[in-house]
Amino acid sequence: MLLKEATARGIAAGTIDLVFRRWDKVRVKEGTSFKTVGGLVRITAVTELPGTDAIGDSDAVRAGFDDRAALLAELDRRPGAHLLRIEVEWEGDDPRVELARDRDIDAGQRAEIEAQLARWDRASRSGPWTERTLRLIESRPEIRAGDLAEELGQEKLATKRNVRKLKEIGLTLSLETGYRISPRGEAYLGG
Question: Do the Cβ atoms of 55 and 119 come closer than 8 Å?
Fold first, then answer.
């Protein structure tokens, strides 16, 4: 589940513990966790509501809105057959953050990174992409996804998926707009 940065930070701060969504298909499950810019978020309960009348002012505030009207205006932006009340809690820091900060890459870790990058390159229908992507982000910090995709000759969504893979192993950082190489990525590329 994607969350706006303010919502993710509110969950981490303990000021938000509800999220509301309208979807055609229920996409979340109680007990699962997901990564956000605010850290790991755990879903503690999912309730399908019969309609917006089941949402009160206190629910809206718990979801980070000033009032019920503001929450309903946001929900009205996206149609969907299911109206969900999702209870959430902050579970902890995103482990990718610590990994991305780690500049000390030993020979074994370097070999693991190289093996993973090679697997991704072999599995790609469009050919090797990892080295070229890393070098382009390194040379153009804060490059936007659309610009990166254009320079790589890829579709924007495919490029975003690829950069997320690099982020999972600590080599890149996602910014509000664009990407940059993490300290771990710098150590890898410099070694």
Answer: no
In this model, does residue 150 exceed pLDDT 90?
yes
For residue 76, the tally of other CB atoms under 10 A from its CB is 10
CB 166, CB 179: distance < 8 Å: no
What confidence tens digit (pLDDT) does each residue in 3-46 have? 998 999 999 999 999 999 999 999 999 999 998 888 899 999 99
Which CATH number applies to 5-93? 2.30.130.30
Residue 72: pLDDT over 90? yes
Per-residue pLDDT reduced to its tens digit, 104-135: 999 999 999 999 999 999 999 889 999 999 99
188 burial level (CB within 10 Å; 0-12, 13-18, 19+): buried
Instruction: Note the CATH number of domain 96-190.
Output: 1.10.10.10
CA separation for the pair 182, 65 (Å, rounded) = 34
